[in-house]
Amino acid sequence: xxxxxxxxxxxxxxxxxxxxxxxxxxxxxxxxxxxxxxxxxxxxxxxxxxxxxxxxxxxxxxxxxxxxxxxxxxxxxxxxxxxxxxxxxxxxxxxxxxxxxxxxxxxxxxxxxxxxxxxxxxxxxxxxxxxxxxxxxxxxxxxxxxxxxxxxxxxxxxxxxxxxxxxxxxxxxxxxxxxxxxxxxxxxxxxxxxxxxxxxxxxxxxxxxxxxxxxxxxxxxxxxxxxxxxxxxxxxxxxxxxxxxxxxxxxxxxxx
Length: 256
Description:
alpha+beta, 20% strand, Glutamine Phosphoribosylpyrophosphate, subunit 1, domain 1, 4-stranded antiparallel β-sheet
C-alpha cells in the first residue's frame, strides 16, 4: 500500500514521499522541557537554565503575524520561599502556606467581587487570604492580541493551616469551589499549591523571562523546572490555555 502498513494495532508512517505526503514537511507541535537537580538543591542557575531551554524551543511554538504574540509559554518551579520573604511578605515556614498566580479581569468592580468570593471560600475551609501581591510584569513587550486580553495578575498567599498533611488537597478543594462560583472568562487560577508555582501567559518562549520580572531575580530559586512552548492546533491561543498546567505539560492536543 505505497509504503503504508495498516493493521488493527498500529499505522506506520512512510519514510519516503507517497501521494501528497512529503517527509520534509513533518513537524511536531509544542515543546516541553524539564531540568531537575537530582540532589534537590535549589538555585537561580537552574531557573536560568530552564528559561534558556524554553528560549531554544521558539521553533516549537507559534506566533502571530506581529511576531510578538505567542500561542503561549510558561514555566513551573518550586515555590521560591526565600524570594517571597525578601518581598516583605511574612509567610510561615515552607509548606505551611499556599500560593499561586491568578488571572483577574481588568474591571476593578468585577475584580473586587471575585476576590470576595475567593476570600469567602478560603475562610470556609478555615484558612485566610494573608496577602495579595501584584505580580510585576513588562507589558510593553506584548503583541496586540496578547495586550488586548492581558489580565491583571495577582499572587495569592493562603495561611492558617495547622497540619501540612492534606494541605495540598485542601487548596485543590478551595480552587474547585471558587471555579464553580466564578465563571468569568477573564478569571483563571493558574496554580494554587504549597509546593509549586506556575508563571505562564499568552507569550512566546522568548518572552517569558522578560515579561515576568520575578524570574530574573537572583533569589528566585528552584530545584526543578518544567517549561512549555505552545503551538495551538485545534484551540485558539488564550492566556489560560498556555502551559504548563497545574499537573500536566504535554506535546500535542489531547482534548479531541
